[in-house]
Design the sequence.
């Protein structure tokens, strides 16, 4: 949106040009008509600007939505609508020579502007109705003064009938606007026991001002409680921990800074503060049904994970990295002590969230094979249009179970670990890169070098994973996988079909690969013998938004729009017809 100064200039130009047209036109732009138009325009601009000042400084004070430029923007659109009516009135006055037509369109435009402002403010402002009503009608009422002055100058009689119309039009406008809003609110009330206007206002506050509180308050009311699990795998050295891999059943959503959208980087930051080491937070199996509802729930999960990050028993054995493919599904596995790390991908096909039943089958198989635990990671590393995950479920299970069976037969040996992290300054949320940056975890087991690269982003374009793995071969890397955190801090901040850019859609692949290679090089340089320890934990009674509620929310806008379409014509045309009849009767 333009700055307030630019909007002020636009308001000035609109008043000057609009005033010249609607006042000087009936005079055929004669000298007296132009002079009257200039008086009208300056008075209109001054009173409109004064009303904006009172609107912002007094009535809308502390309202998070209504900054000075948005107040000015609302005035600009209000005047634009009003000038539309006045323009028609000017043309009719020019043709028929009667200023009563100018007055009639002026008054109908007054009611239309009042209704517009009432609807807009009711949808967007956090102020109560006792503030919204005067804030809505103040500018139109003040702007009547230069218009009535113009009528007085041209000799049009202004009397009690005009006052009677105003006393009728303001309540009619208020009733029409609130009847419309009440009907639209039904869509939200039926689905969430919360009016549609309240829900929309909360989303606008987040979109415009990054305020997560209003949205999260709604999510907290209709969410449900679930138990959240998490797995931690730590790699130690003589001087402390070298690195931690943290995988939670929380889904990082739904968008921007709301709910658990930032949880991957929040968890990374919290663990790095508790244990000075490189922390990666790849994506687990769960989908949007495990989006946390608020920052309160985030803190509950973070506290639990930090409390469980006390590693006591370490194992110095690990297996080499193995990989298998079944149809479109690929899976890799590496075992550290009695804990396996298993990744799943459908790359180069679209790899999005996987259902929980895939993980259940893997854990059951691991238990039969004698493993104590499996950390299952959804690589979430390829997006190329839509793909039916259900069709790939059997392939995913087969690939995972086969790679597990192969990994447990391998002879374990001592291993070395290297870790490094970089947060490139030149990549932004709009580019698809979150605050967690790029983490590289390198292992050397029996001369094999494997690497796990974790990027804080929401998926990556198809084919980029393969480019990265090929480039790492030049560094002597034998095997590896590229993972994303599925952070949703990058979501709903760009205007495209997805609402975000997956990694590699807008940033240079070459630059990204250079950063990854440099990070892996640093990890290779600090390779040292290590041991591993793992922990699992669960957090009961954590409030999540829930899959059904998210589906309902996605349909709410469409339902509200359909209701608005059905009710807007009868309400507003009925109010307009009533006011036109009132004008005609009062002019008799």
Sequence:
């Amino acid at each position: 949106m333009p700055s307030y100064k630019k909007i002020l200039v636009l308001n000035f130009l609109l008043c000057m040009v609009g005033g010249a047209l609607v006042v000087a036109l009936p005079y055929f732009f004669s000298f007296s008509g132009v002079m009257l138009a200039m008086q009208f325009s300056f008075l209109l601009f001054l009173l409109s600007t004064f009303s904006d000042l009172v609107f912002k400084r007094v009535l809308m004070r502390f309202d998070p939505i209504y900054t000075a430029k948005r107040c000015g923007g609302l005035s600009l659109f209000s005047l634009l609508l009003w000038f539309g009516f006045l323009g028609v009135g000017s043309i009719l006055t020019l043709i028929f020579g009667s200023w009563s037509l100018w007055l009639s369109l002026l008054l109908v435009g007054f009611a239309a502007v009042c209704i517009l402002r009432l609807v807009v403010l009711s949808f967007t402002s956090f102020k109560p109705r006792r503030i919204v009503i005067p804030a809505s009608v103040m500018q139109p009422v003040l702007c009547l003064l230069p218009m009535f002055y113009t009528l007085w100058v041209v000799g049009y009689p202004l009397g009690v009938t005009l006052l009677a119309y105003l006393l009728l039009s303001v309540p009619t406008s208020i009733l029409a606007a609130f009847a419309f809003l009440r009907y639209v609110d039904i869509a939200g009330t039926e689905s969430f026991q919360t009016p549609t206007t309240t829900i929309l206002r909360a989303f606008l506050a987040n979109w415009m001002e990054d305020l997560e509180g209003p949205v999260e308050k709604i999510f907290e009311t209709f969410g449900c409680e679930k138990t959240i699990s998490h797995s931690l795998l730590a790699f130690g050295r003589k001087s402390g921990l070298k690195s931690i891999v943290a995988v939670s059943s929380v889904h990082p959503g739904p968008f921007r800074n709301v709910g658990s959208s930032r949880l991957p980087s929040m968890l990374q930051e919290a663990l790095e503060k508790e244990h000075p080491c490189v922390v990666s937070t790849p994506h687990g199996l769960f989908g949007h049904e495990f989006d946390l509802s608020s920052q309160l729930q985030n803190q509950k999960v973070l506290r639990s994970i930090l409390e469980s990050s006390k590693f006591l028993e370490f194992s110095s054995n690990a297996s080499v990295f193995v990989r298998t493919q079944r149809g479109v599904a690929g899976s890799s596995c590496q075992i550290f002590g009695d804990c396996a790390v298993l990744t799943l991908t459908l790359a180069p096909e679209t790899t999005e969230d996987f259902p929980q039943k895939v993980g259940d089958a893997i854990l059951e198989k691991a238990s039969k094979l004698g493993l104590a635990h499996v950390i299952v990671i959804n690589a979430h590393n390829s997006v190329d249009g839509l793909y039916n995950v259900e069709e790939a479920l059997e392939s995913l299970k087969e690939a995972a179970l086969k790679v597990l069976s192969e990994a447990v037969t391998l002879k374990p040996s001592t291993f070395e670990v290297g870790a490094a992290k970089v947060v490139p300054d030149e990549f932004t949320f709009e580019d698809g890169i979150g605050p967690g940056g790029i983490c590289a975890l390198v292992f050397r087991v029996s001369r094999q070098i494997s690497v796990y690269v974790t990027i804080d982003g929401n998926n990556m374009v198809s084919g980029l994973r393969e480019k990265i793995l090929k480039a790492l071969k030049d560094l002597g890397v034998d095997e590896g996988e590229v993972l994303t955190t599925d952070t949703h801090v990058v979501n709903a901040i760009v205007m495209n079909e997805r609402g975000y850019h997956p990694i590699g859609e807008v940033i240079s692949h070459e630059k990204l690969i250079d950063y990854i290679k440099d990070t892996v090089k640093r990890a290779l340089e600090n390779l040292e013998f290590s041991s591993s320890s793992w922990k699992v934990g669960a957090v009961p009674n954590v409030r999540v938004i829930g899959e059904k509620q998210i589906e309902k929310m996605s349909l709410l806008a469409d339902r509200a729009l359909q209701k608005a379409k059905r009710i807007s014509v009868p309400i507003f045309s009925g109010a307009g017809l009533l006011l036109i009849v009132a004008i005609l009767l009062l002019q008799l």
Q: What stands out?
A: The longest strand covers residues 528-544. Residues 124 and 201 are 5 Å apart (CA to CA).
